[in-house]
Amino acid sequence: MKITQVRNATLLLEVGGVRVLVDPMLGTKGSQPGFASARRNPLVDLVVPLADLLDPDIVVVTHTHSDHWDAAAAALLSRGVPALVQHAADAAVLEKAGFTQVTALDEPTTMKGVMFTRTGGLHGSEATVAAARLGEVMGVVIARAGEPTLYIAGDTVYHPAVEQAIAAHRPDIVILNTGEAVLPGLDPILMGAEDVVRVHRLAPDARVIAVHMEALDHCTVSRNDVRATAEAHGISELVDVPEDGETLSV
């Protein structure tokens, strides 16, 4: 398996030869308004050539917030690419944009020999989700015979659903969104550096990969914050914090 950190939560996976594009935010630097300031998002440009991202075998959209599914992704990706989303409401968003093979992950689904299973999460405290109308989000477990089992937690705070997913699926690799994003006047809506340690304790043999940092105006935790926290707890060898464009072979 190969995992390329594209930018923010956007990942390009190669799973047994199947190319899976996760949460595509493909717009240029500054192409959309900020979430918490006058700065425009994304804060950085793509370093992976756009052409390398436009021919996936499968697209996974954990939710349709604009930092996970933006106007550029909707405009540039093939309308016939199989896309997996969390529920019918998100399916309708993609279908309205012209996508013709959209599947809601109501149950484990196998495509091209790869199984995708939806997991739960909470995009902030319950009060924050309600106040900011953040809606539902999902994580996803990706499994194929002969490949490591990968759990992408998605846009969630540390939550019992994360614990349940790890206990049920025993992943070899866990990808966490650790930017600890904060909207004005509200609690964090993502995990942060200390949550990497908490997840490691749940899955001490798993490799943890931290992403969703340094690309959006409301993210407060940096890559160096995560690296320093991992080092302080003696788990650096089990925690990867890839730069944009970096590919990990696992």
- Do you know the CATH topology? Metallo-beta-lactamase, Chain A
What do we call the CATH homologous superfamily?
Ribonuclease Z/Hydroxyacylglutathione hydrolase-like
Structural class of the helices, strands and pairings? alpha/beta
Q: Could you tell me the mean pLDDT?
A: 97
**Count of β-strands:** 14
Number of domains: 1
Largest sheet: 7 strands, mixed
CATH top level class name: Alpha Beta
Strand content: 15-25%
Structure notes:
With 250 residues, this protein is of the alpha/beta class. It has one domain: Ribonuclease Z/Hydroxyacylglutathione hydrolase-like (Metallo-beta-lactamase, Chain A), CATH 3.60.15. Strands 6-5-4-3-2-1-14 form a 7-stranded mixed beta sheet, with helices on one face. β7 and β8 form a beta hairpin. α5 packs across α6. The longest helix is centred in the middle third of the chain and has 10 residues.
Output the keywords.
single chain, 250 residues, alpha/beta, Metallo-beta-lactamase, Chain A, seven-stranded mixed beta sheet
In summary, what is this structure?
The protein is an alpha/beta fold and 250 residues long. The protein has six helices and 14 strands.
What is the element layout, followed by pairings?
Blueprint: E1 2-7, E2 10-15, E3 18-22, E4 58-60, H1 71-76, E5 83-85, H2 88-96, E6 102-104, E7 109-111, E8 114-119, H3 126-132, E9 139-143, E10 150-152, H4 160-169, E11 173-177, H5 193-202, E12 207-211, H6 223-232, E13 239-240, E14 247-249
Parallel strand pairs: 3-4, 4-5, 5-6, 10-11, 11-12, 12-13
Antiparallel strand pairs: 1-2, 1-14, 2-3, 7-8, 8-9, 9-10
Helix pairs in contact: 5-6
